[in-house]
Amino acid sequence: MNDFQRLALRAAISIREAMLVDPPNQEIDLPDKDWNRLQRLLRQKQLAQDHEWRMAVQIINKRLISTMERLATDFRQWTRDLEQSSTPRVVTPDLRLIYEELIALPSEFTEVIIDLRHGILRVVTDEITLEGIALGRFDIVYNWTNDGPGPSYDIHALDPAPSNANSDFVHPHISDGILCEGEAKPGIEAALAQGRYCDFFLIVANTLNTYNDDSAYVTLKEWYGTPCLDCGTSCGDDDLTLCSGCEDPFCHQCCDSCRNCHDSLCGSCLQSCEECSTPHCRDCLNTCSECNHDFCSHCLTDGYCEACYETLSETDPELEEEDNHYETTHPQQIPPPATPATTTSP
Predict the structure, then answer these.
(1) Exposed, middle or buried by CB within 10 Å (0-12, 13-18, 19+), for 76?
(2) Could you tell me which residues belong to the region Disordered (predicted)?
(3) 42's torsion region: left (phi>0), alpha (psi -120 to 50) or beta?
């Protein structure tokens, strides 16, 4: 028996003893901090909506989603704890089974650590890549002495490559170290209850290598930021602009500003003046009363574009009279001709 096998035997004895002890009744501590934060964010969102601060609303929405996800994780865990407390205790697994499961771990994982002092089993996964996005290695830590609320295992990123959209997430299905188990939940619970610890770690590792867009805290499409709806470039919050027209996110390169009101607009919401071609929002352009084309205020005279105004001036007596009135009331100051300099004969 080598050193690891001796350590695994001692751990198996400790684990079996822990499984024989009935867990104490646990009180549920309500998440007052997150609940208060949720209420505060809702008030901030209402204020931002009242003032039409669109960018602020978008930022607050993301914070609301993050807070709600943490609350949802807590409630899911309490539900699981209550279900486990109401389920009859299964027969404690045989010591040999636990020992055989532990000594099988090094054949499945390159790094296995048994910490008898703290009652911890720890394995390190291979590098995980989901749909071309490298997320690095993960540390799966199981505590067989855990008697508090919450799961008996947690997961940490060893080579964190967090989402640009939300740096709190290092994996689409992990929030605060807790795995969203999804369809793997029954298998994980059964493996732990039966002492099949090698199976437990393999199920968790396989779950980390599986992606489900519907249950992701942050989707892989948003991992490197929110995609610009024009060019598709993923951007962080600081590199995105919300179009004042359609309110969709675009990168700075795909947005321009109205030359009159200076609102930021995407290419689809911007319009150009027919005369000077400068970009404007629809509200800052006016339609020529004659040709029905759109022009900025600088390129219209009495509601007409330059070409229509000149044409109408030649045919409309009223416009011509206005021109003459302008010339009469605003005479041009023509300077007198300069007197030729007197030349002196030599």
Answers:
(1) middle
(2) 318-346
(3) alpha
* HEC per residue, the chain: CCHHHHHHHHHHHHHHHHHHCCCCCCCCCCCHHHHHHHHHHHHHHHHHHHCCCHHHHHHHHHHHHHHHHHHHHHHHHHHHHHHHHHCCCCCCCCHHHHHHHHHCHHHCCCEEEEECCCCEEEEECCCEEECCEEEECEEEEEECCCCCCCCCEEEEECCCCCCCCCCCCCCCCEECCEECCHHHHHHHHHHHHCCCHHHHHHHHHHHHCCCCHHHCCCCHHHCCCEECCCCCCEECHHHEEECCCCCCEEEHHHEEECCCCCCEEECCCCEECCCCCCEECHHHCEECCCCCCEECHHHEECCEEHHHHHHHHHHCHHHHHHHHHHHHHCCCCCCCCCCCCCCCCC
pLDDT digits (tens, 9 = 90+) for 58-82: 878 888 888 888 888 878 777 776 7
DSSP-derived pairing of the beta strands 226-227 and 178-179 = unpaired
Residue 242 region by backbone torsions, left for phi larger than 0, else alpha for psi between -120 and 50, else beta: beta
Residue 26 pLDDT:
54
**197-208 helix and 95-103 helix, angle to the nearest 10 degrees:** 40
Give dist(CA 11, CA 99) in Å, integer: 8
Q: Which residues pair with 264 in a beta bridge?
A: 257
- The span from the CA of 108 to the CA of 197, in Å, is 12
Q: Which two tokens stand for residue 98?
A: 């636990």
Cα 346 from Cα 344, distance rounded (Å) = 6
* Its pTM surpasses 0.85: no
Token pair of 322 as six digits:
């206005």
Q: Please, what is the end-to-end C-alpha distance for the chain in angstroms?
A: 131
Summarised one tens digit per residue, pLDDT across range 87-98 is 555 567 889 999
Residues whose CB falls within 8 Å of the CB of residue 259, separated by 6 or more in sequence, listed in order = 278, 279, 280, 284, 296
